[in-house]
Amino acid sequence: MNLRSIPFSAWIGIAGIAIAIFCALFAPVIAPFGERDVVGDVWLPAGGDFLLGTDNLGRDLLSRLIYGARTTIFVALAATVLSFSLGMLLSFTAAVVGGFTDQLFSRFNDLMMAIPTLIFALVVLAVLPQHLWILILVMAVLDSTRVFRIGRAVALDVAVMEFVEAARLRGEGSLWIIFREILPNTLSPLLAEFGLRFAFSILFLSTLSFLGLGIQPPAADWGGMVKDNKDGIIFGISAALIPGAAIATLAICVNLVVDWLMKRTSSLKGGRGDA
Amino acid sequence: MMESGPLTGPVPTDGTAGATHPRSAELSGVPAKPNPASDGQIGGTFWRRFTFRRPLAALILQRLGLSVGLLFAVSLMIFGGIEALPGDFATTYLGQSATPQAVENIRKDLGLDKPWSERYLSWLGGAVQGDFGTSWASKNSVGEQIGKRLGNSLFLAFFAALISVPLAVGLGMLAVQFRNRLPDKIINVVSLAAISLPEFFIGYLLIMFFAVKYGVATFPATVYDSMSFTERLSAIALPVATLVLVVLAHMMRMTRAAILNVMSSAYVETAELKGLGMFRIIARHAAPNAVAPVINVIALNLAYLVVGVVVVEVVFVYPGMGQYMVDAVTVRDMPVVQACGLIFAAFYIFLNMAADILAIIANPRLRHPR
After folding, report:
1. pLDDT band of A142, cuts 50, 70, 90
2. Do B198 and A203 touch (CB under 8 A)?
3. Distance from CA of A76 to the nearest CA of B (A)
4. How far is A25 from chain B (nearest CA, A)?
5. CA A208/CA B245 separation, integer angstroms
6. In sequence order, what are the residues at sequence separation of 6 or more whose Cβ sits closer than 8 angstroms to the Cβ of residue B208?
């Protein structure tokens, strides 16, 4: 693969993600003001000292946006990594062991998926105390049901291959087969899926925060910033739209990269790539 | 909204029927139209004969049974799963600083001192009759509140579906017609962007432009009993537009994929090579085969709409089920949360079942799973 084969749209996506990650990593260095500092009047218009204006409490919007990138990306990434580890481990186990284990995991997965994700999250978060790690865990478990379904389908295709049978006959254990035979051969389609789940995690986290159930104030987080500033909309103050646009841009960038990855995998397999 | 979108909704077709699978190994090769003369030779139970004579009715009955079973399991999960989670309602309800005596009182007050199996049975018994107990926060009847709000939510979802379904199917067909040319590419890029937009962002964008800048729409979209039908319609214009935009992109992409799948099949190519006109190919060969997947797409997206309603209602301060549920979650009003969760799940399961059954009716090959 050379750099020239990457299409223009994917470059835009990569650039957007790089900027967001840069903001997240170096937030204290680039942000002009502190995350929680009240620096001016309420809802000042953009321009002057405050490039994007101030929010509902007089905090600098740009600084909060930069710090928010940190929280949003960290939580979404943690949830996606966790959901992938969980979903892939369970789905590969189901595919390799088969029989009763497979039935048990798959039927339980069907049951979990019978409840819409957002509704499930609302019900669970109503009971659990509000901690960051609980939020990540809930997001990861709910998302892992989707990973499980895809992972099982992909792994079942590989599990019947000759080299897996050879490994079995060699007397390798299930863990060896999962990590040394199946995982390397399913990585490519699962990579695109990872991007898709990450984009979904960003949107899901933002929605939860917007509903007041995600990341708790005063920590900055894009979904929560929309919630904080939403009352300004009626007065024509667009402060709530800026973090919303940030969420949308990041999600679009991730989707652009995923789109390219998917086309690449389907063309590697000789697919016609149009459907 | 987000990705738990229709692309990944529950599709209970893949062998979920295991528990009630009536089809034995010797019957698995029966022809689509059983020969009536051979009826006498089919032995076995009533259910086996019924499956043989009326495979369609049997499959539908089976799916119905499965959905009811699933709903039962979901109710157990919504109630029992919450019991199993750490944290005590009474303490969370009163806060950390509550005295043990106060906690004890409130437990007795809310009926939490009884064993959970007893509470589950009485809750389920009430839920079947539409009685969901009383709200902890407002002490009102939950069923009464839901009765009012469910109507509002369905009103919103109905109009969103009414607009989005024809639009999505039409645009999907347009994209296929101009495949890989400019209109298709534009539709593709725009829909990819639309999928990535959070609902609340679309909602506030619409409010900013149409309600605040131009003043052509109303915000907040509050409806009350004394409103006339046309007043209601103008109040829900923006929420409906948001829902349409949210669901349109998904539905259109799936419609495009479904139609494209049919159009690139061998029999359509044969028809083309025979020299048939484009209209004839679409009407006689492609359309009958594309109906099933398109209906499936629509049903799945309607299920998605049911969930999308939650965020849109909060954005527009619309008095529906979604707002009721979110409010209840923030104050940890469990009877309301459980009732709303069950109803949302019921709609979701029901629409997925409808998608499944319609697919079976439209595609005879699915009636005889191998």
Report:
1. very high
2. yes
3. 13
4. 24
5. 20
6. A233, A236, A238, A241
User: Complex ipTM, two decimals?
Assistant: 0.85
The nearest CA of chain B is from the CA of A171 a distance in Å of: 31
Written as six digits, the tokens of A114 are 């019978």
DSSP string computed for B281-322: IIIIIIHHHHHHHHHHHHHHHHHHHHHHHHHHHHHHT--SHH
* Interface test with chain B among A109, A119, A193, A263, by most B beta carbons within 10 Å: A119
pLDDT score for B37:
45
Interchain pair A127, B204: CB under 8 A: no
Q: Given a cut of 70, is residue A1 above it in pLDDT?
A: no
CB contact under 8 A, A255 and B195: yes
**B33 has which bridge partners?**
none
Whole-angstrom Cα distance, residue B344 to residue B365? Answer: 32
Nearest to B70 by CA among B298, B347, B308: B347
Q: Is the per-residue pLDDT at B16 higher than 70?
A: no
Q: Do B348 and A114 touch (CB under 8 A)?
A: yes
Q: Measure CB to CB from residue B341 to each of A119, A196, A212 and give the nearest one.
A: A119
Determine the angle formed by the axes of helices B287-316 and B142-177, rounding to 10 degrees: 130
Band (B26; pLDDT cuts 50, 70, 90): very low
* pTM of the full structure: 0.83
